[in-house]
Design brief:
Layout lengths: L1 E6 L4 E3 L9 H10 L4 E5 H7 L7 E5 L10 E3 L2 H11 L3 E3 L3 H7 L5 E7 L7 E2 L8 E8 L3 E8 L2
Parallel strand pairs: 1-6, 1-7, 3-4, 3-6, 4-5
Antiparallel strand pairs: 2-8, 7-10, 9-10
The chain binds NADP nicotinamide-adenine-dinucleotide phosphate.
């Protein structure tokens, strides 16, 4: 599993029903990186971003599932992981905070964009120990910094 997220320098990922910034080129990158994959999301994130998805398979976690057109809804993380594995495609965790907290321990890679500037929000990416990970790719774009973190074995 890979984690994919955009965050501020102090780990803000969300503000209300969205992100505090508008950086379309970073969002385009997210849509390209997750194109054709299996993307796992929490119910809140699905409501915000699900309709844009370029993933082949969307899996939505919810404890009170409503049927969702074009997505597989799962009541538990274990069921979501089974469903994701059955699709046989690369698996991404697309958040939000509650889902990142549960999936970072399972992930081998994290594709993280840091949005430049000062941003306020109400939802944060979980803290992780950078010593458990190494940066294998770094790209400094005008409005964000992209890093690929690979778990040290
Ligand atoms: N910057 C980024 O890259 C990024 C990416 C994604 C999201 N976000 C932001 O993050 C915020 C949303 O994050 P969030 O933490 O509030 O919500 P979330 O993680 O998207 O969704 C939480 C919901 O997922 C379901 N859920 C989570 N774990 C579950 C489990 N183990 N079993 C069953 N259901 C489970 C529950 O749905 P039910 O309540 O239906 O039971 C829970 O209320 C928004 O502000 C959004 O904009 C930012």
């Amino acid at each position: 599993m890979k984690i994919i997220a955009a965050m501020s320098e102090d780990r803000v990922i969300g503000h209300g029903d969205g992100m505090p910034w508008d950086v379309p080129e970073e969002y385009e990158q997210y849509l390209e990186l997750t194109r054709g994959t299996t993307l796992l999301m929490g119910r809140r994130s699905y409501e915000i971003f699900g309709s844009d998805s370029t993933a082949d398979n969307l899996i939505v976690l919810s404890r009170s599932p409503q049927p969702v057109a074009g997505a597989t809804v799962c009541r538990t993380l274990a069921a979501a992981l089974d469903a994701a594995a059955a699709f046989g495609k690369p698996i991404f965790s697309g958040g939000g905070a509650k889902v990142y907290a549960q999936t970072i321990p399972l992930a081998a890679e994290m594709l993280l964009s840091t949005i430049k500037g000062d941003w306020r929000g109400d939802t944060y990416f979980p803290e992780f120990d950078p010593f458990d990970w190494k940066v294998t790719e770094e790209r400094d774009e005008e409005r964000y910094l992209f890093r690929r973190w690979v778990r040290r074995t």
